[in-house]
Design brief:
seven-stranded mixed β-sheet; three-stranded mixed β-sheet; alpha/beta; Rossmann fold; globular
Length: about 200
């Protein structure tokens, strides 16, 4: 019998292989298409605080949004792996990409010596990377549970969760666990779709 963990491992390996061999021009073009669909969806313009991520390993690139949101007066938060606590993220306010440095796993994170913790600022919307998403909004990440733990916090219950992916990262159905926190919407180069209110 195939276990959920084995299915996730095989799917993760297959999709990461596809994503890793994307040529830079295709990744750039498709990332720009995702950003365009996010703009059309409307919630970026009305959100006062937004959680972004900085891409790693050919994830959809959100860096184009950073200066645009700051010009608009939107407060931008970025995640940082918590020191000494595996699986936990802290959010920090960032006002420029010069304020990030490589952190755990080689991901660019806010420099805690420069960027203040978010404190009581709660993002109205969160743009979320993933290895794969299904049509119900469930997400397959790298297996650390970082985003699931973040979105399980009571204060994050009102945050709109939007999964960003290239078209080939959308699958029919992922194995889901009780602790999984599904997305409210998915955005790819081909579509923006609301899944749940």
């Amino acid at each position: 019998m195939t276990t959920a963990a084995a299915i996730k491992t095989e799917l993760r390996d297959n999709i990461l292989k596809k994503r890793n061999i994307l040529d830079p021009e295709t990744a750039r073009r498709d990332s720009a298409a995702v950003v365009g669909r996010l703009r059309e969806a409307g919630f970026l313009a009305t959100s006062k605080t937004i959680l972004l991520y900085l891409p790693v390993k050919n994830e959809v690139d959100t860096r184009e949004l950073f200066p645009e949101l700051l010009r608009r007066g939107t407060e931008v938060l970025l995640p940082r792996c918590r020191d000494g606590e595996s699986g936990e993220l802290d959010l920090h306010c960032v006002t420029g990409l010069s304020q990030v440095r490589p952190g755990r796993f080689g991901i660019l994170e806010p420099d805690p010596d420069i960027c203040p913790p978010s404190g009581d600022r709660i993002p109205e919307a969160a743009l979320v990377p993933g290895v794969a998403f299904d049509r119900r909004g469930f997400r397959l990440g790298f297996g650390g549970g970082y985003y699931d733990r973040l979105f399980a916090r009571p204060e994050m219950s009102g945050t709109i969760r939007v999964g960003l992916a290239f078209d080939f990262q959308i699958v029919e159905k992922l194995p889901a666990e009780s602790w999984d926190r599904p997305m409210h919407a998915l955005c790819t180069p081909g579509e923006f779709v609301w899944i749940r209110p």
